[in-house]
Design a protein that fits this description.
The protein has about 270 residues and is mainly alpha-helical. Helix 12 runs antiparallel to helix 13. The chain is about 75% helix and about 0% strand. It contains 13 helices and no strands.
């Protein structure tokens, strides 16, 4: 029995390692399908806790959120959070990941005050953990979501402080999100020249989930400077990039369309 269990655990670890690589490569549809198939498979009778199934469902819902189907899986995220509540350290860490994915959805739904409160709650829990180092990426993700929620409430100076203060230690995928949020926060303060310079300085690698993000905030800066022709071109690039790589229901597509409409309604190109 021990050899069978070890073989099964090894196969599971290999599967999750492969799915993590696919996730980082932006293969969200494939990751979600494989993770859901694993979660639906019968659980071995000797395994008392459904931890592997929880891991698979966390990965599946996270892939759906990254693809832009967050609203579709919101109820599933909340159910998974409830299941993981009375849990040990491993399940607790998973629960924080699921909560952070839910915050991403809240921001996309413009429920900014809820998103802010939940992001702050995640950050408080991370600081209470005895060994927070493995959750460094989660902390940066929560900080990025917090900054985005503050931008949504027009608290741009607070968002700038968070984004600027954490960029030096950020790595992908948090780096691109924080960088774009910094540009957004500068736009919100009317500091369009600074925003445009920041958008064009040391542009981080854009993962699939970040498609259109930087062009969108660049278009906002150009619009603020009255450079409507360039702003329209950047907004169209953002919309094309989002349409090519993200699900049609992704909130960024709606945002890009709205910005493009405002730009084109403002008059002829200068």
């Amino acid at each position: 029995m021990k050899r069978i269990r070890t073989a099964r655990d090894s196969a599971r670890e290999e599967l999750f390692a492969r799915l993590e690589l696919q996730y980082r490569a932006g293969e969200y549809e494939e990751v979600e399908a494989a993770a859901r198939a694993f979660a639906a498979a019968p659980r071995p009778p000797w395994r008392k806790r459904p931890l592997p199934q929880w891991q698979a469902r966390t990965l599946a819902t996270g892939a759906a959120v990254a693809h832009g189907r967050g609203a579709e899986v919101m109820a599933e995220l909340e159910a998974l959070i409830a299941e993981l509540k009375p849990a040990d350290a491993e399940a607790h860490a998973l629960r924080l990941v699921v909560r952070d994915n839910r915050v991403t959805v809240l921001v996309g739904q413009e429920r900014y005050e809820e998103a802010e409160g939940e992001a702050l709650g995640i950050l408080r829990e991370v600081t209470r953990l005895a060994h927070p180092a493995p959750l460094g990426k989660l902390e940066l993700g929560a900080l990025g979501n917090l900054a985005a929620a503050l931008c949504g409430q027009a608290r741009f100076d607070e968002a700038e402080e968070i984004a600027r203060g954490n960029l030096p230690r950020a790595e992908e995928p948090a780096l691109a999100a924080l960088h774009a949020t910094l540009v957004h926060s500068l736009n919100g303060q009317g500091r369009y020249e600074e925003a445009l310079a920041e958008a064009r300085r040391n542009t981080p690698h854009q993962a699939r989930r970040d498609s259109g993000r930087l062009d969108l905030v660049t278009a906002q800066a150009l619009r603020g400077l009255g450079r409507r022709g360039e702003a329209e071109a950047a907004a169209r690039r953002a919309l094309t990039d989002c349409g090519r790589h993200l699900h049609p229901s992704h909130p960024r597509i709606r945002e890009a369309r709205s910005l493009l409409a405002r730009i084109t309604e403002e008059g002829p190109r200068p």
